[in-house]
Write a structure and sequence with these properties.
About 45% of the residues lie in helices and about 10% in strands. The protein is of the alpha/beta class and about 325 residues long. It has a single domain, classed as P-loop containing nucleotide triphosphate hydrolases (Rossmann fold), CATH 3.40.50.300. It is built from twelve helices and five strands. The chain has a five-stranded parallel sheet with strand order 2-3-1-4-5, with helices on both faces. It is globular, with a radius of gyration of 19 Å.
């Protein structure tokens, strides 16, 4: 994964993927991370949880035994003064919300309340320009600074120029951009909301609740990005375009990142990745890239009518027709 002599160096060091859940962020992360000069991080905000629970890295090893993460955490301890092996949460990376794999000893009611308050204050600051006392956002800002130290540590350990974080949080994306605007590129990934609706039904959760979550995400993310990030620093990618024509879409994305497209990116399973948190497709051997259009036959006319009433205009605005 080392750089070839004479290669041009892109200004992009950090790529952040924003998307609602079940929108294909893990696939996009893996494809980008299969570039010779990029490493996938997955939902890296959850790294302390994954270390605490010793979940499995995509390379196959438990995260505490993975040679990459052992070296990364060793270096982080030296820089940040932490003892990650003793207390993984001494590596503060913000306030992520775990859904599928949860450390109940950490994600307590108190944590959830603190998370809600801090993110509300960050929203007021970044969306509406409200002056928030520094002390109230110190934990949020420390988490952003630590993420950047983590990114650079991974870049050094793996010998790559760029890392991809698919933690999804639009607040984190904006905060990271504001810290390193010359080096950050944000990808807003969207999937047809009707596909999200069907995905929730398949998982036996409320389809309408899924639509509300999807709608709320983009209704908040879009104005936040427009207010804080210039157009040249972020791009919109549709999951359906990526799945239908990955070669063409990756060429566009690489151009936006200032990197040359590499055909080997398409064979993401041929590359070793070190993702500790994300969709379980990262472990699936033989996974193929193909559009998921099950919703077209799977949603009832009543469900389609409900979707149109709730979110049809936003769906079309995002280019999903």
């Amino acid at each position: 994964m080392s750089r070839k002599r004479g290669d041009a160096v892109s200004d992009t060091r950090y790529v952040y993927i924003c998307s609602a859940g079940h929108s294909g962020s893990t696939l996009l992360d893996l494809l980008l991370g299969s570039h010779s000069r990029i490493a996938s991080l997955g939902e890296i905000s959850h790294l302390p949880k994954n270390l605490a629970l010793d979940t499995r890295c995509t390379c196959g090893a438990p995260v505490r035994q993975c040679a990459v993460w052992r070296e990364v955490t060793r270096r982080l301890d030296a820089v940040l003064g932490t003892r990650i092996d003793v207390d993984p949460y001494s590596l503060h990376l913000g306030y992520p919300l775990a859904v599928d794999v949860v450390d109940r000893g950490h994600q307590t009611r108190g944590y959830l309340l603190r998370r809600k308050l801090v993110l509300a204050l960050a929203w007021l600051k970044y969306r509406h320009g409200v002056a928030i006392p520094e002390a109230l956002l110190s934990g949020f800002e420390t988490g952003i600074d630590n993420n950047l130290v983590l990114y650079d540590t991974v870049r050094d350990v793996l010998g790559v120029d760029t890392v991809v974080d698919s933690s999804k949080s639009y607040l984190k994306a904006v905060a990271i951009y504001r810290k390193r605007p010359q080096h950050v590129r944000i990808i807003l990934l969207s999937r047809d909301g009707r596909g999200i609706m069907f995905s929730h039904r398949k998982r036996r959760s409320s389809p309408l609740a899924g639509v509300h979550l999807w709608k709320r995400y983009y209704e908040r993310a879009l104005p936040l990005l427009h207010a804080n990030v210039p157009a040249q620093a972020w791009l919109h990618v549709r999951y359906e375009d990526l799945a239908a024509a990955p070669d063409a879409e990756l060429r566009k994305i690489c151009a936006g990142l200032g990197l040359a497209f590499e055909p080997a990116m398409l064979d993401f399973q041929a590359h070793q990745h070190h993702i500790t948190n994300g969709n379980n497709m990262r472990f699936t051997a033989g996974a193929t890239i193909a559009p998921d259009t099950q919703w077209q036959n799977g949603l009832s006319s009543r469900e389609l009518w409900e979707f149109e009433r709730l979110a049809g205009s936003l769906n079309r605005w995002l280019g999903h027709t």
